[in-house]
Amino acid sequence: MAVLLPRPHPDDVRIALAGLLGGLLIWGVGLGVRGPRDPIILWDGRWPILLPLVVMAGCELLRRTRPRTGLLIGVAALTVDTITQGSLVTVLMFTDLVYAAVLYSPLTAARRVLWISGAMTVVWTVVPLAAWRKPEALLIGVVVGLVAFTPGATGWIVRNHRDAAEAARLRAEQTALLAEMDRTQAVTAERSRMARELHDMVANHLSAIAIHSTAALSLDDPKTSKDALAVIRENSVEGLAEMRRLIGILRNDSGDLEPAAAPTLDGLGTLVEGARTNGLDVVLDADHADALPAPVELAAYRIVQECLTNALKHAGPGRVTVTLKQRDGSLTIAVISPYGRQDGPRAPGSGAGLVGMRERTALLDGTFEAGPVEDPASPDGKIWAVRATLPVTENPQGVPE
Length: 401
Hints:
Layout (H helix, E strand, L loop, with lengths): L9 H19 L21 H11 L6 H16 L5 H17 L2 H26 L5 H81 L3 H30 L16 H10 L3 E7 L6 H21 L4 E9 L2 E9 L13 H12 L3 E8 L7 E10 L10
């Protein structure tokens, strides 16, 4: 079965052609490494020089694709070249094969080539010196070092620089990828924050507007319509003001760094009064410390606000109870409302309110529950209960702004 060699790199083809043409040029003018009477020559004449030259040029075609194979054949070609008059170009191409073998071979093979070339340099330096005891014998080791070890060491240095550059490039790509992931997460978190703020601050006003406008359209009573229009105007003005603040934050040209002064639990009384104005029967029972962490107060305020909005839109007739208790390092919020359909107009819901409350609670490592609960005292046998527990810590992990 034939083995197909990979296509040589274009640069390797150019190197092989340059080496072959250069060797032919030197051969044509009659230059050789050794003279005709050199005792090492076993194959005399000018024509034998061409065989190792052509083979070495062919090995150059394998310097990237099969560097170890090219080096092994090159060693054989160099051995043949040493028993002829020799060609300087053949020796130069062999040094390039050693360099390529260290640079392009797998790491283990490259390290082996470097060690072997170093060992050969040492052997060819020590053995001739010990045998002949002449300083001139050191020249053999110098030549072997220049032909074998020096190109191998150069290839090793280049390989290390190349690997370091590649590692730096990969680190830069990973850093850029992590930065992009952080940016995406920051954008997603900011969008979620703005969605919660938009829903919590505006949905209450829009729900009241929807309910009272429906009542004004469905009931033929001038007084009812007038009262409904008054509530609609009040909620539309407040909602418009909140929208302007949010738009100012997004444009960052209003001078406001917050949508408003961060709500606190001291504002629950005003919030409950607004719900009563919109027709909701609400009772507030708050028992908490005067100073709570700002993120906890903001989350608690928004949760109560959303519960009142949901009660206005969905709860049946009856009283809504809001309870806040601070016990054992946590603030518990419980909002109980009638379960069942309203007799009057209803406002549509999207379910985003429950998601927002759950997110606010999770950001503070709290717990959140919402759903119908059995209650024999209720006309429908059920009530809708929302319960959230927020840890009271000085440095909460998340800040649901």
